[in-house]
Give the backbone structure.
Amino acid sequence: MANKTLGTRQKLSFRIEPSQLAKPRNPVAVAAKQRAAGPHRKTASAVRQSARREVKKKLDEPSQD
């Protein structure tokens, strides 16, 4: 079964605008990507919370005496 409307339809064509060909690079992003990033430090509240959790774990576990 042939599609009769294809002959009268406008053919598909891909347009590439000049702005899409050569976009300028972001120099800030390039510099940031090249820097070596290290691990982040935990906040004081995160350290405090984890310490409280550990103390609670120690208190809850049965002693091995």
Q: What stands out?
A: The chain has a mean pLDDT of 77.
